[in-house]
Amino acid sequence: MAAAQRASILSEPVPIDRRAADNLRFIRDTMERAGSFTAVPGWGGVVIGVTALAAGMFSVGLGQRRQFFFWLAEAVLALAVAFVAVKLKSKRLDLSLQSRAARRALLSFMPPLLAGAVLTAVLYRLDVLQVLPGLWLLLYGASVVTGGAFSVRIVPVMGLCFMFLGALSLAAPQGWGNWFLMAGFGGLHVVFGIVIARRHGG
């Protein structure tokens, strides 16, 4: 009886709507992956986070100007690490950095960073350094959100966390700026970097 039931089940045709739904789901997932920039480096983010934590610890107790130059050097180092990490991950996963998704992600990522660079120069000239930690976190978060719109879903979430932390920093006492920078560029990069590395191939 059991064998006859199994034979009857196996001989039943698969409903066409179920097969069509499976095919549509596969096509949708394939198109989503093709349209996303997936070479976001998780372990590279962890390295950036560690160097940011080190920069923050070294600059504890220093004056605002010396902290400013510590974090400026950290920003240059982070950009270099990110560039190398993206190149290595894209090569390992055989992903082209000339793809439409990669170009759109980069184009969306850059404007808030450029705005931040201009505002940093202006505020430094005016000697208004106390707002820079919040400004950096806020605009970097905006970059990650806009660029992450063309990447895996967790990237915009990370950007929103940076923006939230930046808003908190602007509302907090000015002496807390270094700690907010450590929490954002250090802590958030490490946490989200590990998640991205585990879920999206390093």
Name the features.
202 residues; mainly alpha; 8 helices; 79% helix
Describe this protein's structure.
- Mean pLDDT is about 80; it is low at about 25-35.
- About 80% of the residues lie in helices and about 0% in strands.
- The protein contains eight helices and no strands.
- The longest helix is centred in the middle third of the chain and has 29 residues, at about 65-90.
- It is mostly helical.
- The chain has helices spanning about 1-10, 15-35, 40-60, 65-90, 100-125, 130-150, 155-170, 175-200.
Would you kindly provide a brief summary of this structure?
With 202 residues, this protein is mainly α.
Secondary-structure map with pairings?
Layout: H1 2-11, H2 16-34, H3 42-58, H4 64-92, H5 100-125, H6 132-148, H7 154-171, H8 177-199
Q: What does the oligomeric state look like here?
A: single chain
Poorly predicted spans: 26-35
Question: How would you sum up the global shape?
Answer: globular
What is the number of independent domains? Answer: 1
